[in-house]
Amino acid sequence: MVSVPQLSGALVRRRGKRLLGPIDLTLAAAGLTVVLGPNGAGKSTLLRVMHGLERLSEGSLNYENTPELARRSQAFVFQSPVILRRSVAENLAYPLRLNGTGKAPREAAVADWAARIGLSDALVTPAPRLSGGEKQKLALARALIARPDLLFLDEPTSNLDGTSMREIEALIADAVAGGTRVILATHDLGQARRLASDAVFLVKGQLIEAAPSPQFFDTPATAQARAFQNGDILE
Amino acid sequence: MDEIAAGLVAALRLIVTLDSDLVEISLRSLQVSLIAVLIASAIALPLGAWLAIHRFRFRRATIAVLNALMGLPPVVVGLIIYILLSRAGPFGGLGLLFTVKAMIIAQVIIITPLIASIAHQAMRDLWAEYHDLLISLNTSKWQRIHTLIRDGRRALLTASLAGFGRAIGEVGAIIVVGGNIDHATRVLTTAIALETGKGDFALALGLGFVLIALAIGVSITTHWLARTEKDSRW
What we know:
- The complex is a heterodimer.
- Chain A is α/β, with parallel strands linked by helices.
- Chain A contains nine helices and nine strands.
């Protein structure tokens, strides 16, 4: 059973400005939750809070275990992928080295994931030299290689071409099918419709709507959600 | 100009004839400076990385002091070590004064802040880049330091080479604690000081050119061994 985050009165304030909340949110145990909203809605902040990268000013974040223990079985892919100044193979192997995976299974996993992201011929290439799409695929594979229970994805396909986007969405879908719980922040409605099992909609740091995907996209409960889906500018 | 030309000729003659004194003091110069750099790097590189990732109350003040210590006057360092190692000093019983070990101690004290400060600057930038990922992966402090040192090794190599450059050219401290004793503690810089004092400018310049060649040689060899300019494989 995947341990999912539960937020109670969660509020983030920085330098006197409220960035998020207060939010009460309980997510389903399985599937892919898409976090939607316009720029500045607080999508990234919400993900960072749930992963423990951002401290709450008020309220609480709860998992079945403590957030620190829960984070051990989580992974996070950032909007601008953080690529280690190492080869592709060493980037893939990094989480496995940290968790003490032996050499043989580590090398097998690296070879497997390099093949899955189409970088088998680039194992010794310095990863910072890869293209934007390749870096994002590498970051996603590095997140998935340690088989996390819960994966946070912060706009993983922004600024990518259609081919790269399709490949990354296929990896995400595979991960969900394999039992990984995914929470994906995006402002791409098409991507949200293709992948989501449920949706969380934010505007200006406030939770406007949280509903199963068909309900959110077919019969949004709020005027703001309808306006967002119609492509209107939300102020 | 004549003296520079004479110095070049003297340097060439010393090198071509493999002058035994020159070989001896050159090797001693290398020995003292390389050992000092190794010891200082072992202290300063993890310290630089630790300062980059660790937040504590007097961190800014510590970094400011570290930066200030880069300008430690070598003669003063030499004097303090002299007092500590002299027969009446607290470490007089160790019998280290006027030995190569005392010269190494002096150089370690002089170059450690320099290497740590440059390392800290490089590690701070790398930490800003890696911060979210390493926190997300639940890395321990030691794993973070190890990752920063490993991935920032090229910048750290430059920091160590800067320390080597300062050490090999240093004269003020080692002449005080080493005593410039022939066949015991004489190195290139103290020999240059001695020959200049005797008025033998050609020999002093010749030794100076050998010193410069050594410093450049070590730098090029280190870069070559570390393959810093070879990016096709990491």
